[in-house]
Design goal:
The protein is α+β, with helices and mostly antiparallel strands and 355 residues long. 48% of the residues lie in helices and 20% in strands. The strands form three sheets. Strands 5-1-4-3-2-8-7-6 form an eight-stranded mixed beta sheet, with no helix packed on it. It has a two-stranded antiparallel sheet with strand order 9-12. Helix 4 packs antiparallel against helix 5 and helix 6 runs antiparallel to helix 7. The N terminus and C terminus are likely disordered.
């Protein structure tokens, strides 16, 4: 159903989230108050739905002004007279009169929610990006300093290998604790970043391909975050084969997520320089991942199945490139991380006012 009225709230320094209920009385008919709909103030108030059926309300689409009056553009039906009475700063009563009768509509606010916390989306995004790269660097630095023999020139499945895989760097003795702490603490923030991506595309014109891409993006994004947490907890020490399976699932979920994000970026391209740069970077990093992942699988099979010399070192190098490309793909979304997250506590109870 189309909006019946829209109320633009003046911008203030603080966040004001208001919740109101709308009631209607048709005094010439039943005289019974009916709940007409639940409305929400968040910078703009829109009428959601009507419970009174095809009645007087469906005739109008007007703007409610703070000057307690209606503009000529906002009131398109001259046969009806409208009076607006502000009973208090929190309550407003409209009297809509015509030759056939009068309808009274009253709006009032529930208890105002309390703003608990405001967090910049970019600060959340930067924390998500800094934690994993810092975890790998710290773990690698500690391992190289304290246990170099466990990272370089160590015995593996088919003999001595000279480069560590990312999984081995993650599972060093002391570095493992730091890695788990940093990565696991960033997982809730990663979900907030995923929410930002969802909100970025939620206001777009809905088509089947956009809707499907958004749903797949969210599912694969959540799977990527959860699998990263499992990879951090379940390493080579706990179960080597299970860890390899988790890494394969993580890479697949990440790849699907990247494809969906590239498609949505391309379908919603605005023509700005920042969007063009972001789209090009995403395509470049996705191309690198598409090229390196089959090579990683091939080298892994050659080493573990046939013990081909030097394939493990090549496997490790291509794994480094793939992980860096995945990381860079996430970083390329920095320009879209604008705005804030608002955490609000409020009562869901509303007070009914008799007319």
């Amino acid at each position: 159903m189309s909006n019946i009225w829209t109320h633009r709230v003046p911008k203030t320094s603080s966040v004001r989230v208001l919740s109101m209920k709308m009631y209607a009385i048709n005094r010439e008919s039943t005289g019974i108050k009916e709940e007409a709909g639940q409305c929400l103030f968040d910078g703009r108030l829109r009428y959601h739905r009507s419970l009174v059926g095809p009645s007087f309300f469906e005739l109008f689409n007007f703007h409610l002004l703070y000057e307690n009056d209606f503009s000529s553009n906002g009131w398109p039906y001259p046969n009806y007279k409208c009076n607006c009475h502000w009973l208090s700063p929190l309550r407003c009563r409209l009297c809509l009169e015509s030759s056939s009768g009068m309808t009274i509509v009253e709006f009032h606010r529930t208890r105002e929610p309390r703003l608990l916390k405001t967090i910049s989306i970019r600060s959340v995004f930067m924390t998500c990006m800094v934690c994993p790269i810092a975890a790998i660097l710290v773990s690698f630095g500690l391992g190289s300093t304290l246990h170099p023999s466990e990272l370089f020139n160590y015995r593996w499945t088919c003999g001595i290998v000279h480069l560590p895989s990312v999984s081995r760097i993650m599972n060093m003795s002391l570095g493992r604790i730091i890695f788990q702490t940093l990565v696991l603490s960033s997982i809730p923030l990663r979900l907030l970043v995923l929410l930002k991506h969802w909100l970025q595309f939620i206001a777009l014109e809905v088509s089947r391909k956009l809707k499907a891409a958004k749903v797949v993006m969210v599912i694969s994004g959540v799977a990527e975050v959860l699998l990263l947490g499992l990879l951090t907890v379940i390493g080579e020490r706990e179960s080597g084969d299970f860890h390899v399976g988790l890494f394969a699932c993580f890479a697949t979920a990440s790849y699907v997520y990247f494809i969906c994000l590239c498609l949505l970026t391309g379908w919603t391209f605005s023509g700005s320089e920042s969007d063009l740069l972001r789209a090009r970077l995403q395509m470049a990093f996705l191309a690198i991942i598409t090229f390196t992942m089959p090579i990683i699988i091939l080298l892994f099979v050659l080493y573990n199945g046939f013990c081909v010399p030097f394939t493990y070192e090549l496997f490790a190098m291509f794994e480094y490139v793939t992980v860096l490309a995945m990381y860079a793909f996430h970083v390329s979304s920095f320009s879209k991380m604008a705005g804030h997250f608002y955490f609000v506590h409020g009562s869901i109870k509303s007070r009914t006012q008799r007319v």
